[in-house]
Model the fold of this input.
Amino acid sequence: MSSQVRAPRAQPTGSATRQSPLEVEVVDLAGLGDGVARLPSGEAVLIPLAVPGDRVQISAPSRRQGVLRAQIVKLLTASPDRVSPPCPVADRCGGCGLQHVMPARQRRFRAGLAERALQPLTLAADADAALAGLGGGAPLAWRRRARLHLRRQGGQLRVGLMAARSAELVALERCPQLVAGLDAWLPRLRAFAAPFVEEGELLMTLGDGGALLALHVRLRSGAPAPSVAALEGFLAETPPDGGAPIVGLQVQAPGLALSVGAVRVALKDEGDATTEWAAAGGFCQASVEGNIAIRAAVRAGLRELVRRRGRPFALGLDLFSGSGNLTPLLLDVAGRVRSVELDIAAVERAEALHGAVLGAGRDAGQLELTQGDAESLPLPGGGDTLWLLDPGRQGAKGVCEQAAWRQPAGLVYVSCAPNTLRRDLQTLAAAGYRRVSASWVDTMPHTHHFEVVVAMIRADAAFDRS
Done:
């Protein structure tokens, strides 16, 4: 256990005043992972890198956007839940906010956030009140998808992540959260991009058989742009020790768009039958284990709804369906499935998955893909319909408002944002929906990010035993 902590760099606030450092006891973790303590006035103050059980000396608190914040000046007594971070820049990098917290305490933190998000929903008759925690077995080297920043500093190109709540770049030589197949490439990628990149982003996705890389950048003034031959040469390089083969490389800049090799890669998290396709800059779950756990929670929720009903649903809607990661699960519980996704590139990747699913002996009429906004499209409801929702952090306000009057018999909601989940569950609870099962999934260890999966039925549905 570490008895020292490097205080993050002080942020100029203008509202801070010079005074003697305060001593406080850290009592909780806030939603983004900051420690919470009480000032003598009774007000709460958020403290980055603090752990419940720490006693710390803090800088003069300053108020930003209505919230009091302070920095650790000195760690006086370390919490038993404090550990030494495995990454040397963990106290500055904004990529992971909880490396200094014992994994078991991180899990209690996520479970508590999930419980609070689920509070609006009462339990359906005979429902299990337990909240299962899934995933979390690989605390390092789990990230197969990443977005890193590129910036020229002191005449050299740096690769890294932004500092927490800052536009300052924290340069990385390696990242312990990246899977080895991507992490091993970072030094070579920096050297490859250095002659022509001024600033931008590096997008990386590792799939079955290799990795996709994309550089979305601004070019150096006066420097020659890269050629297709240069990209092909990099693609042909022997991978560094531990690195995965690069199967596709793109460079995009104002007035320039180059691409060599593959533009998408297969993700076979549960075998060939559920292959999802991903692009270098497209969305997919960041960890294999996390995605498998999400699918397990969704599968369990769907099966419980069918068990209560006694037969499959006539129609299942997969809303915010992305590249189709969860769509095949609906085919096991509904006679027909319709997926809805706004992003055209994701729809194109989902079409490949749909083709593979239908090629496995299913009726082509069972599966339909719609390109559109689930928040504004009129959606079919009624007692023979099941909705599966997997929105982004903004939640599914419009869909849940539709559900309140279209009244699908069952819903499964997959959320990555506890605050918008709670808001949407308040709408559904007022419309008569009750919780059948719920799980939280540790998808991104050492961060405040996780997923909640909750299955619901209407209290007056024929298959509810209330």
In short: The two ends are 51 Å apart (CA to CA). The chain has three domains: 1-82, 104-138+287-458, 145-270.
